[in-house]
Amino acid sequence: MTELSRYLADCQARINQLLDQQLQSSEPRLARLYQAMHYSVTMGGKRIRPVLAYASCQACGGEPEHADFAAAAVELIHAYSLIHDDLPAMDNDDLRRGQPTCHRAFDEATAILAGDALQALAFDWLSNQGNWQAETRLQMTRLLARAAGPQGMAGGQAIDLAAVGNQLDLASLEYMHQHKTGALIGASVQLGALASEQASTEQLDALARYANCIGLAFQVQDDILDIESETSVLGKQQGADLARNKPTYPALLGMAGARSKAASLRDQALDSLRNFSTQADPLRQLADYIVQRQF
Hints:
The protein is an all-alpha fold and about 300 residues long. It is about 75% helix and about 0% strand. It has one domain: Farnesyl Diphosphate Synthase (Orthogonal Bundle), CATH 1.10.600. The protein has a two-stranded antiparallel sheet with strand order 1-2.
């Protein structure tokens, strides 16, 4: 295993264990709701957002346990967004991570409620962690709310839906994805840094630049894979964006241009970390991984 592979495996095992333990209920009347929540969160996934939280915490001198619930909260928000994105009223997808989507495995009403519950639970976890100072908890809660709401992910999704079948220029496409995808990735990095309670203003600013670049790079690579990969590798329907006539980077820039864009964003992300020590090496390796991944 490479150094990054080991780091990914360690972080994934840590967050998977925490999520599995926390997403349980002793109330029989809530059993089906919790089953849907647990199913959607633990059905797989790369856990990129929690890994980024752990890596940025380390970059600022923190330990993994400092970032546990920051990593978990951002993954709950991500899982809720996927449940709702897959619904018939949104993207109407049948597959997620190679498994039936939540509304297919359960039913549409349960899926909606599972997404709602995961979103609320994320803020409950962030606001109730006694190992962070009260000011840190408040800052983290506000940051995640902004990233998930109309000024972040939800707003980006609304722009995406409105853009189907329409031509967007590069600036408009980037604006959409900075909200839809980049906001939550940025929150992951910022939450991990805040969880360390050691991050300086300069470090937070540099990490914000890093997160903005890798957030866009992540989406560029997603767009490339939607064209080049296969359903069995992606774990979701290949070509779905193309079939829905969604605006993408390859459609706007061509495949070569999209790859060049991803590489440029990766290089900018790495440059933003130039004043960090080797403790930020996982962040550096993750920037490469994001533009090289095949699923």
